[in-house]
């Protein structure tokens, strides 16, 4: 998996740029010789989703299969935990679940007691043995039936223990739940798994664009059918974006409302500054 320092620098810049817009700087941007003509509003490009990966099990990290900046696909293995003890438990449970010697012995004993009970039943009818002899044989048969039930239950429990241990071993390999890019926050071999994330994954396809629209201009922007942004450093050509949603609350500090757009363009990096172009007259 390729390591992209350019991508990681973009993520770092994303945090700084977002804080800058949130600190009350003017959301309006002016260009050229328009005598202060509004050219658009400030926006920023960021991941559409940030996933903090955790583990259902505790233990020590044995292996880390990725590095910060690596592009991963859903299902790719990321982190492996030390589960040597769990593997031993899985093998022991598997052996127990397949060991039916005690069950076979209980069945043989039960079958013999069935024949004995049948002989004594006839003997009691012929008054050849006492009733107490027959009752003793019937009790032995009932206990033998219970022994078979107990052995079957023991095998069922062993099978459940095996499946539990097997699942624990499978869960020891932490896989990516999404397509994305690995962030800087990543565990190292030898570290203990805690409540914190094992890794941070940024989902960047599509990207999310947040534009800080002044409240007084919101109605004009909201009526638009098509939207475009201009990436910082690029020429006048706009990049098309799709409206995702509009925030239901205004930021009182900057007197703006955030409009969110999706952007599918592999050439644009998260953390880029941009301008949401103004509504067409």
Please characterize this protein's 3D structure.
It is a single chain. This protein is an alpha+beta fold and 281 residues long. It contains 5 helices and 12 strands. It has helices at residues 5-22, 84-98, 101-125, 131-171, 218-222; strands spanning 28-30, 38-53, 61-64, 71-72, 77-81, 173-175, 180-186, 199-214, 227-231, 239-251, 256-263, 273-276. The strands form 2 sheets. It has a 6-stranded antiparallel beta barrel with strand order 2-8-11-10-9-12. Helix 2 (84-98) packs antiparallel against helix 4 and helix 3 runs antiparallel to helix 4 (131-171). The radius of gyration is 35 Å and the shape is elongated. The two termini are 47 Å apart. Residues 1-25 and 30-37 have low confidence and may be disordered.
Numbering strands along the chain, what is their spatial order in the largest sheet? 2-8-11-10-9-12
Low-confidence stretches: 1-25, 30-37
> Helix segment count?
5
List the helices and strands in order.
HEEEEEHHHEEEHEEEE
The percent range for strand residues is: 25-35%
The major β-sheet equals:
6 strands, antiparallel, barrel
Shape: elongated
Helix content: 25-40%
Mean pLDDT: 83
Count all strands and give the number: 12
The class by helix and strand makeup works out as alpha+beta
Intertermini distance: 47 Å
Radius of gyration: 35 Å
């Amino acid at each position: 998996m390729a390591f992209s320092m350019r991508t990681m620098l973009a993520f770092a810049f994303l945090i700084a740029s977002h804080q800058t817009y949130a600190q009350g700087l003017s959301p309006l941007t002016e260009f050229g010789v328009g005598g202060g003509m509004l050219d658009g509003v400030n926006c920023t490009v960021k991941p559409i989703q940030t996933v903090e990966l955790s583990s259902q099990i505790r233990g020590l990290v044995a292996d880390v299969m990725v590095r910060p900046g690596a592009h991963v696909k859903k299902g790719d293995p990321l982190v492996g935990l030390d589960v040597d003890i769990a593997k031993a438990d899985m093998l022991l449970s598997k052996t127990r679940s397949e060991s039916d010697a005690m069950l076979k012995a209980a069945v043989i004993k039960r079958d013999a007691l069935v024949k004995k009970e049948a002989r004594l039943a006839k003997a009691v009818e012929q008054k050849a043995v006492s009733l107490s002899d027959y009752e003793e044989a019937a009790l032995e048969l009932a206990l033998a039936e219970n022994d078979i039930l107990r052995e079957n239950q023991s095998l069922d429990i062993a099978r459940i223990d095996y499946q539990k241990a097997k699942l624990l071993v499978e869960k020891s390999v932490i896989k990516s739940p999404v397509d994305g890019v690995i962030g800087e926050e990543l565990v190292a071999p030898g570290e203990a798994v805690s409540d914190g994330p094992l890794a941070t994954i940024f989902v960047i396809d599509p990207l999310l664009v947040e534009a800080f629209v002044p409240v007084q201009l919101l109605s004009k922007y909201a009526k638009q059918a098509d939207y475009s942004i201009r990436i910082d450093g690029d020429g006048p050509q706009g990049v098309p974006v799709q409206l995702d949603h509009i925030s239901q609350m205004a930021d009182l500090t900057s007197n703006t409302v955030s409009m969110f757009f999706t952007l599918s363009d592999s050439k644009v990096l998260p953390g880029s500054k941009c301008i949401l172009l103004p509504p067409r007259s």
